[in-house]
Specification:
Helices cover 35% and strands 36% of the residues. By secondary structure, the chain is of the alpha+beta class. Strands 2-6-7-11-10 form a five-stranded mixed beta barrel. Strand 1, helix 2 and strand 2 form a beta-alpha-beta unit. Helix 1 runs antiparallel to helix 4.
């Protein structure tokens, strides 16, 4: 092997390319299987068709389906504390303080966060079809805070800088700490936004429906978008892993072919 030296970096590149290709292929297969399972989930809207399906189903329930609709509060909605004329059904308000403290060993000011406070509010809400009236069909969402998924929209975020006076400077010098900023944020599931829920749907009475956590152990999920956009995002993710698999595989094969070609060329030169 010493007669035909090979750059170690090239060998590392070949091995890394094939290793990444295998990893990306594994991730692609996982996403592909997940996508196939998602495509098998029936999709409905809160309309008469869903009522008919439920009435014809055993125990008037569908074990695991997707329901897409617009968010509508069952009563009075929550009002944003920071944004005028902004209403929601789930609200999360966070307040956090940023401080700096003096490190006598390093002779520097270090940052830390403290006094974090979070307030969660919610009111009952349902999913309705676009253009529906309150008396029309709806699917009531049960225990939405138990569902997984990032379905809240950040409607407000502000960092308020602390103002320093002469007294504050004196106190900071004595205590070794000083306030830097106060961070405020608010997240809402807004009234009128599109939401897709994955779970069990039950018919209550003649026309009222309820979306709840499935009893078979599958995930109860709320997604802040329509079903098509949700599926398109998963399709794009699968396609990304597929492309990365091909690119890294081709790169590794090209590097390997270059090594083989170089070795063959060197052997032919020595044989002449």
């Amino acid at each position: 092997m010493s007669d035909f030296p090979i750059n170690p970096l090239v060998l590392i590149g070949v091995g890394s390319s094939f290793a990444f290709s295998g990893l990306f292929y594994h991730l692609y297969q996982e996403k592909k299987n997940e996508l196939q399972k998602l495509k098998e989930i029936p999709i409905f809207k809160p309309d008469q068709h869903l009522v008919k399906i439920l009435k014809a189903s055993p125990h008037k329930r569908l074990q695991y389906v997707a329901v897409e609709g617009l968010v509508q509060a069952d009563g009075e909605p929550l009002v944003s504390q920071f944004v005028p004329r902004c209403f929601g059904v789930i609200q999360k308000i966070g307040v956090e303080e940023h401080w700096k403290y003096w490190n006598s060993l390093t002779k520097t000011w270090n940052s830390r966060r403290t006094n974090k406070q979070e307030t969660n509010n919610s009111v009952p809400f349902s999913l309705v079809c676009p253009g529906a009236y309150i008396s029309d069909l709806y699917v009531k969402v049960q225990n939405p805070l138990e569902a997984s998924g990032c379905f809240l929209e950040r409607v407000y975020h502000r960092v308020r800088r602390a103002e320093e006076g002469l007294v504050d400077v004196v106190v900071q010098g004595l205590s070794g700490e000083k306030p830097v900023a106060r961070e405020e944020s608010e997240q809402l599931l807004r009234v009128g936004s599109t939401l897709t829920g994955f779970g069990e749907v039950v018919l209550e009475g003649g026309r009222a429906m309820r979306l709840q956590a499935p009893q078979d152990g599958r995930q109860y999920i709320l997604v802040p978008t329509d079903h098509k956009s949700f599926m398109d995002r998963h399709e794009s993710s699968a396609q990304m892993w597929k492309v990365l698999t091909a690119v890294s595989g081709i790169t590794g094969a090209s590097l390997l072919a270059g090594v083989v070609y170089s070795l063959v060329g060197q052997r032919d030169d020595r044989s002449k």
